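# step 3/5: fold
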Amino acid sequence: MIVRTGCLSPHVAPAQPDHMRLVWREPYKGEERVRVFAWTCECQDTVYELRHAAGLAYIRRRRLINGATELRETYRWRLGEAYSVWGALLGGQAR
């Protein structure tokens, strides 16, 4: 995890050569209540959020591509598993 001067949220470290590859899917539309627990800095074109809904947690990726926003999400995990993947993402061990 990298924190830059002037930024309040963490930045994602560069991907390690042997990083875990996450499966990114279209966002699920059926959730009414979602809680965002953690997020990366908005100063980057790609922002990640750790979210919790319906008893499970997941990571949402928001990318700005040619002025358009692309949203993708991981599978849902139990909260402890999601925190482990979140830590790996911040440390460059997952993408």
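# step 4/5: annotate
Strands lie at 35-39, 46-53, 56-65, 68-73.
# step 5/5: archive (pending)
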